[in-house]
């Protein structure tokens, strides 16, 4: 970057949530910049939430990892790039030679740019020959991916942001949109101001900030969403709201789904611990409103029945034919800035690039042929929780952790610590020094941060936007795709000689249009028209939504060979571990308004710390009394997996029997505040997504006398 042009602002994208807001960044010297919302970006039209507005405060080099490091005699010391990469690649190769490709793994992040993600997947699946590459997006939206694939034959989100403004009713299930996706929430607020008839119904065990705008709040018993939506399916099919022509011409499997959903509103009210009148009010409103969107997020996905919850929601849209048209549809709202881009390139251990299927031999052959790679992974790899268990057991001996902090963020996080302490080789790429995870690295590689790196991200409405460089690369930090390519070249692989990230994007776009698969199914994910993009075109690229120029499912054709969507029977089941005995309370986890993930970035902004200065546990006052803890005291929250310490807060919209703890605080305080250490490692059997919303716990005073 020419610093004499520092008065010029650069159009880029916020690195936090999946809303994907456009940001104009104006450099103020080599380390800092001011930010403002990009009025031309169709996600936010110039608005930014508190986190986005404070992005400028999070810049600077304090705490940055600026040089490669290698561990010697137990201590990390600075090394050259050559030494660090030679050591990482040499040990990696030796492990693969001795134990096979499944003895190594990558664990990556929804923070990565699509180009980084693409190269990481190509390396593991096409060259190493293992699908042991998973991502922290497994923790956030893998149940939605699995639900979409079961219902539509492809992972597709059939709603656009402007549909929220066209809807007559919005249902938010397990989504505190006001805090977790604030700009989308503001769009709904403004739509409601303009059209007071627009109804908002919130389904959440907690009374969150989102409920302040709701016409109806349904505080369901934790884990009972399938009962509620099964009851809705049964109600809709009997109430005349069903669309017989759509069902007959565009779907399969309604009878089986109805058999599994045979429940009355009275039984729903009992199972979900809701007033019957409220259940009926929700069902009647849904039945009577054609333009309805059901938005869902972590409260649905992060469950041992997460995929079934997603399909129970989709079933209600299929039975009414409310999909593929303006103002209606099921809407998975992604948590991370590039959860969607990661999915496009096959970023999960059970997926292949370009929405192709790892379990289909013809798809594997097609991708291998496109890459010209020596091999292709022939079976799904280990999903996040299983991966770290396999590291601890010694089955996986080397792991490369990129842009994430699993010792804080994964469930049973002490197990992750044990796993990394046992691994023969831990490589970590990061932008900051001294995270809980980096302390276990044998090789530590400095990566470029937001503002320094350059590439694309895709938001919740499938809109690809550019993240652009507006600050110079500090120290010896490099882009993640570049580090991966140099590592791959040391392993002797061709196919990684990209000179610029635009070349990776163009290859990714070409693969999306690759039609050499025997089934030749139409896939909605196709950005082939961008395949010829050159560097100038890439640099100038405006936000673009796929599928290009058309609405998802507007033709009412789905991505199965017969073109029909599938109803999925969803028999309700309770969370795996239920509260009782020694652990009488249910732990729910989530975000606070002004922090992001493990706070490596937002923790630097004083303004953001003002909202919630420290970790806390929200308790109902009567439960607090029973636990012997008072408002403002420190408490220990324990499960059979681990414990943490946080400050007691009475209230927080929490119902009796539940507690809420935020996910952000790490283990580097005087007392360990990692809620991940407490969360049970139970996962959804279909998606592998952990049950972050339901761990039996006890709460007592800290320190215990
Ligand atoms: Fe960033 Fe999300 Fe806030 Fe937009 S809503 S500014 S993407 S954190």
From TrEMBL:
Residues 7-63 form the 4Fe-4S Mo/W bis-MGD-type domain. The keyword Iron applies. One of its GO terms (molecular function) is oxidoreductase activity. One of its GO terms (biological process) is cellular respiration. GO terms for cellular component: membrane; oxidoreductase complex. Its cofactor is [4Fe-4S] cluster; Mo-bis(molybdopterin guanine dinucleotide). Coiled coil: none annotated. Keywords: 4Fe-4S, Iron, Iron-sulfur, Metal-binding, Molybdenum, Nitrate assimilation, Oxidoreductase. Belongs to the prokaryotic molybdopterin-containing oxidoreductase family. NasA/NapA/NarB subfamily. This is Molybdopterin-dependent oxidoreductase. It comes from Pseudoduganella dura. The chain holds residues 1 to 705 of 895 of the full protein.
